[in-house]
Amino acid sequence: DAGVIQSPRHEVTEMGQEVTLRCKPISGHNSLFWYRQTMMRGLELLIYFNNNVPIDDSGMPEDRFSAKMPNASFSTLKIQPSEPRDSAVYFCASSLSRAFGESNQPQHFGDGTRLSIL
Amino acid sequence: SQQGEEDPQALSIQEGENATMNCSYKTSINNLQWYRQNSGRGLVHLILIRSNEREKHSGRLRVTLDTSKKSSSLLITASRAADTASYFCATAIRDSGYSTLTFGKGTMLLVSP
After folding, report:
1. What is the pLDDT of residues A2-51, one digit of tens each?
2. B43 and A42: CB-CB below 8 Å?
3. Is B96 part of the contact surface with chain A (CB cutoff 8 Å)?
């Protein structure tokens, strides 16, 4: 079975450029999560969607970050304009919640996008 | 601040030895999950233990949960070089209304042949 698919795997760009990260969750999963991982701060939840609706975006660092989920099989995380401090590995994860707010299901992670902003 | 904190930060053992990692958390939880991350890859779910459970086994993995001490441990028995990875605990906060998890910073395990 296909797992969570993220693209690109690596992105190197210059400060000020727009960056778009993409995620295809596991088919049938109704919850999608975007995380950022750095050595200093560990794994941080950026935003959480349930049935394509953003539920909690309190982890989004600032207005330069935006996320969308236009349908059940696709999500994007956009940074505009990008800054060197945005350099990190960005993960997308999905899970199947049988009831809203249920947390007794594992999350399935993609292999991440390693983002470097010069 | 982190909800889950793993201890130790790093652990180096020989193949065949057991590895024990600990996790402490601050608020009441619905469940606690352990994940593994190999270098350059995403996290992989290992095991979930609910707040009303005290111990759970899966193959060479044994997880315990002590809600009175707000702590959990992950034991890997008869370790193999392939167990080399970072291990994270993640907590689902009780009554949060969300399906979200809060991850610790992880324990880096090195198993030498």
Report:
1. 899 999 999 999 999 999 999 999 999 999 999 999 999 999 999 999 99
2. no
3. yes
